[in-house]
Amino acid sequence: MSRREVLARIGLGAAAVACFALAIGLGLLALDVARSQDALRNGDVNYRIAPQRSGLWSPSTRVPFALAETILGIEDDVALRRAVRSIRIARLEDPTASVSDPRLALQRNDAQARLDAIVTNASDPKQRATAAGLLGVLGLARLVTETQDRVALLSSTVANLQLAIALDPENDDAKYNLELALQRSRGVQLTEGAGGKNPTPGGSGSSGAGAGEPGSGY
């Protein structure tokens, strides 16, 4: 057998191995796509039943770099679901809970980081609007317990809610919460102008939006 024939056979063998590997890779990717679709559906069901459950919307995949999610175009959908879950288990309906339970404070920080990432990176304006609106809700909740830098916190809360409305003019929840934030902003300005310093909202002497439950419009 000539040298050329040997090289040709080696080349054919390498090509066959490459084709076999490609076929395996495509098969695994197809399996990952199916698993990702199932994980999205099952995750939604399990979230309604037990939002504290870990691993929601996380398929067991074989191909790295979340390629199946990229093919399906659901990366932003999954990110938003996880951010909403993080907000829910942070117990914003009880704003003072984070004072007695430091884990909730960490959970709220996690929620804020996730929402910030969506506002910055998501391609769908409505998803960005939802995330910005939730950042506004989170800001209103923080105002109940945080006494430092309240003016800056109010400013960022208003800005997030205004962004939510700009991205989605039909976002009625953001409009309602923006009105709450603006009312609270006026209250802080009046209180500080009268000589008070960082009063605790909802405490003695508080009235109007400052005494209400933040985020009740969402």
Q: Any low-confidence stretches, pLDDT <50, length ≥5? A: 193-218
> How large is the count of helical segments?
8
Order of helices and strands: HHHHHHHH
Biggest sheet: strands, sense, closure?
A: none
Radius of gyration: 25 Å
CATH hierarchy: architecture of the largest domain: Alpha Horseshoe
Beta-strand residue fraction: under 5%
The whole-number mean of residue pLDDT values reads 81
Helical content stands at over 70%
Tell me the overall shape. elongated
Total beta strands: 0
Task: Give the class-level CATH name of the largest domain.
Answer: Mainly Alpha
* CATH topology term of the largest domain: Serine Threonine Protein Phosphatase 5, Tetratricopeptide repeat
Q: What count of domains describes the coordinates?
A: 2
Task: State the end-to-end distance.
Answer: 78 Å
Task: Please give a handful of descriptors for the protein shown.
single chain; 218 residues; mainly alpha; Serine Threonine Protein Phosphatase 5, Tetratricopeptide repeat; 2 domains; 8 helices; 70% helix
Write structural notes for this entry.
- The chain has helices spanning 3-49, 67-72, 75-89, 97-100, 102-121, 125-145, 150-167, 172-193.
- Helix 6 packs antiparallel against helix 7.
- Helices cover 70% and strands 0% of the residues.
- The protein has eight helices and no strands.
- The model is unreliable at 193-218 (pLDDT under 50).
- The protein is elongated.
- It folds into two domains: 1-73, no CATH class; 74-195, Serine Threonine Protein Phosphatase 5, Tetratricopeptide repeat, CATH 1.25.40.
- The longest helix is centred in the first third of the chain and has 47 residues, at 3-49.
- With 218 residues, it is mainly α.
